[in-house]
Amino acid sequence: MGFVRFKIVLVGDENVGKSSLVRRFVDNKFTENYIPTLGFQLFLKPLTFRPYTVELTIWDIAGQPSFEFVRRNYYSHSQGFMLVLDLTKSMADQHLEQWIAEVHAVCPEVPFILVGNKADLPEQKVEKGEFDKKSKQLGAAGEVITSAKTGTNVVNAFDLLGRVYLSALELKGVI
């Protein structure tokens, strides 16, 4: 069995649920209180993709505009990222292209998946068809609709990004 370490970064506007997704994935917990991330938080979580064990090093990055210049330092050496959006806000209000440009300025070839969060809330502003279309338009390697509150598809999102990374390594002949 092989061992692979994989640095992923969660990016997106403030209050889209990045920290909640990570907490649900790592500790299977959710809190209703919004506490903005200052700088970044780091988490480790192993996943098994036979025959590999992948240790995810998860960087939860602050989404506030005031952290833009600091954030760029955290993208270095990342192998993938999740672009998280809030399904209760219009896509036009969520700076998706700006996030991709910001990460790709540091890591130009890094793949990403699009994650639509807060699927449990009734006031949805993003429909599934619009979400899928935007994912393709942005060049995402995949897309997942999640709820950090209920846990719906949270593991699937991290699993998908892990598989995208392993596939890239296999294509390059690294593993």
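(the above was protein one; protein two follows)
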Amino acid sequence: MNEGQLFTNFVIIIITFIFAAFFVAAEFALVQARVTALEEMQAKRDKPSTKINRAIKMVTNLTEYLSTTQVGVSICGIILGWVGEGTIEALLTDALSLPSWSLNNSVIHVVSAIVGVLLLTYFEVVLTEIVPKNISIDIPIKTLMFVTTPLHYFHITFYPFVWLLNSSANGIVKMLGMKPADESQDVLSQSEIISLSRNAVKGGELEHNDLLYMERAFDFNDKVAKDIMIDRTQLTVIDINKTVNDAIKLYLKTKYSRLPVVADNDKDKILGYVFNYDLIRQKQINGDVSLAKVLRHMPTTPETTPITEVLKLMISTRVPMVVVVDEYGGTSGIITDKDIYEELFGTVRDEIDNVSDNMISKIDENQYRVDGKTTIYDFERFFHVELKDSEDSDVVTLSGYVLDNYHNIHEGETIKLADLNLKIQDYRHSYIDSFIVTTLSK
């Protein structure tokens, strides 16, 4: 091979390397770039950009344009194999043919062929695969903007060939009983969305509070009335036979703006509720009348009703309080609109809330005082643990769970749940008022 041929071949190899790197960079840029980022970039411009519109089209029709880049990579690979291997082998053959090596021709050709393939493979992998791939992963949008225009025209030129390849591949995939990539939907699961959002928080693209609201929103859809209700043992009720003046006294004592009204002082017989506005207005007329005069209707819902449906019920009936009933029709508890809002926004304290009323309060670095009325869901979420068989249990509170699983427990005893030690505090009347929870180092 003369010097003119060697020079020409080297120029072809270098140009092919550049094109191969271009197609690999384009391939990874297309995969890494997100349509939302491109649309946001377009929205910030005063005048729409043709290049950005083309980039959006490419990312939207990902399978088609990935096939285009693969065609380009394949063409470059064929050229490098055809020209490059022979050129490097010829150079090595000339070098090894020098008298100082004293090698016969068969050995020279074998060594030249092996070393030529290894060298060409090394440079091809490093310069046309790894380097452009890393660049595209690091700056996908900038890379995509750089390759968009030439890739667009290459796609137009080779479109018939790309279409033929895609159609052939889709036919084979369908024969195997699967859907082609362009027919399947790119849908993310809840866990994938949360995982991506956590990465966005780490990268500074998303506020931690936004992630918190997102996690609560997903949890919100999985909860039912029983999970967030105020248990019947905590309800303050008033009998229907009491007067408006009696209800006002109870209102001033408890500061609850709405009070459930029952018959025969039985919480299983909730008739409705009274509103403090109605009570005060009626007192100005006659405060000695029965509560039936100002009684308002309160809807009921089963324990298993999703809280999204409970909220819809409140909105449709324009009643901010709902009775939760068990399978036998007895009262399990109530849900207020505030209970639902707090599932999304966290604890919302108003003028009558006592800051010391937290169900879980920190004592020191690894110890907490936990109220027995704390729901199992809130306990698991706060301490990031899962209590065994809690999902299959009918109990709602931590106290109920412990008593249900440890029948012979006594005050002062310590039990282990998950990675926590729970010391029983204030055990009276078959109910545990509070626990001292100690977190164990893993």
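Reviewer note on protein two: The chain has a mean pLDDT of 85.
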